[in-house]
Write a structure and sequence with these properties.
Elements: H1 3-13, H2 30-49, E1 50-58, E2 70-73, E3 76-86, E4 93-100, E5 112-116, E6 119-121, E7 124-126, H3 130-133, E8 136-140, E9 149-151, E10 165-172, E11 183-186, E12 189-199, E13 206-213, E14 225-228, E15 232-237, E16 240-245, H4 248-253, E17 256-259, E18 276-280, H5 284-289, E19 295-301, E20 313-316, E21 319-327, E22 330-331, E23 338-346, H6 354-366, H7 370-377, E24 381-387, E25 395-401, H8 425-442, H9 445-464, H10 466-513, H11 519-547, H12 551-554
Helix pairs in contact: 10-11
Length: 558
Amino acid sequence: MSNKDVDQSHLEDLPEVAVVNRGGLPIVWVIPLIAALIGGWLAYRTISEMGPTITITFNVGEGLEAGKTKIKYKSVDVGTVETVEISEDLSKVIVTATMQKGTDPHLTSNTQFWIVRPRVGFGGISGLETLVSGAYIDADPRPGESTRVFMGLDAPPGVTALEAGSQFRLRAEKLGSCYPGAPVFLRGIEVGRILGHELAPDNQSVLIDFFIQAPHHVLVQDTSRFWQRSGIEASVGAEGIDVKVESLVSIIAGGVSFDTPVMVGGTGKTSQPGTVFELFDSFASIGEAKYVRKVPFLMHFDGSVRGLKVGASVELKGIKVGTVTDIAMKLDPKTLNFEVPVAIEIQPDRMLTPDVLEAIDQINAEKPYSVGRMLVEEHGLRAQLQTGSLLTGQLFVDLDFYPDLPKMSLKMDSKYPEIPTVPSTLDEFRRTATSVLEELRQLPLDKIAHELLETLEGAKRLTNSPDLMQAVQTLSATLEDVQKLTYDVNQTVDSLATSTEKTMAAARAAFEVIDPNSPTAVNLAKTLEELAEAARSIRVLADYLEQHPESLVHGKSE
């Protein structure tokens, strides 16, 4: 049997295969399908948890890195920077960032973004943590209309949405030390800060925005007063040198101080946000601002006005009543003499009550400057330069009454009425000294000196002459004799006085025995009285000679 026959017989014995046609998806596709479902679910979850995509435009993109830089709010990540690109005109940096889910309600037109970097300013040092972690974008959500496009800030905002307080505005002639971040003080306590500044629409002043933190913002009232605080205030005037030193913070950062005076009263209501206040240069200038009424006058001084400056005080009886507003020099073409016209402003509110001012206004309405004319012509009002401080040499104008001087009128020749002046004390001293020197020059000093020299030479010859020396020796010997004679007289007088006392004692004893009415007793009594008188005279003579022994030679002097 051949191999071919064996194979066929073997195949005939095998069972037939039944082919069944099954429908549906093959089991081999189950795994890819499950993977696709899981991927779709993950994609859906990722998309559903993904927040909105926003665009922020910055002027400078320093420190920003795509995929690394975070957007934070209260130091918590709320987004990530995806791309950092340059605008088509190369002027801006456009940042695309993906925010976390749930941030949609806070992405409004008023929301602010800024790049946090290390900064050093008047408000202190901030952003030091970025030295390690790198720069990041900080956010300040605020209510407003929903948007996805923002303009980033170059610096952090002055006030965030979470800070409680109120924002106000100041108007000043110059900026001074009111830079952004500078502190605002109330009785030495920092209660706010300066936010920014700009020129006023009239370009004649500066508008300064500042913020007062709660709860101190309720202390800002319409009667509050604000002044610049430079830390160190030094002034040199007629009163001398005045130096005031504030806190170290004020010295470094300057700032503004304010208070609400009790004497003004105030309404007790907090000022509305945005209220504009006037900013004074210093606390002292606040008191000057209340004197609105000012009357101009003019004066002419012949002498030197060195030490007199614009702003110097004008005083009456030691009280400031005005200020010097201008100092110039004038040449008289006829006499070729120089004069110094000084313009001043008198502030009547400093010395008169409102009712008196009203009465003066009524009088001046009929005849202008009638009161000033009366003070000058009838009471002798004059102006004089006085030295306020020997240390600084500053001068001030002193107004006083000189009724003994010749009467003068209030001149009305120029634009302003002119008050007569009197020479200053220093000028008067100079004139007197010049006059004395001139009289000394007219004296025959050479002749006087020659005669004086001759007199001195004669006195010298007399002093050194032998006759004078001999007279002195003779006088010395005479004085010795007088002294010896005085001693002898004293001894004799003492002995005589002792004898007289003994005699008187014996006489008294005898008198006691004799009848007091007898002639002998009467004569004896008279004798005793004369002896007593003689004893007293001798005692007086002895005392005088003891004190003035020279009287024995010269006699008794008057």
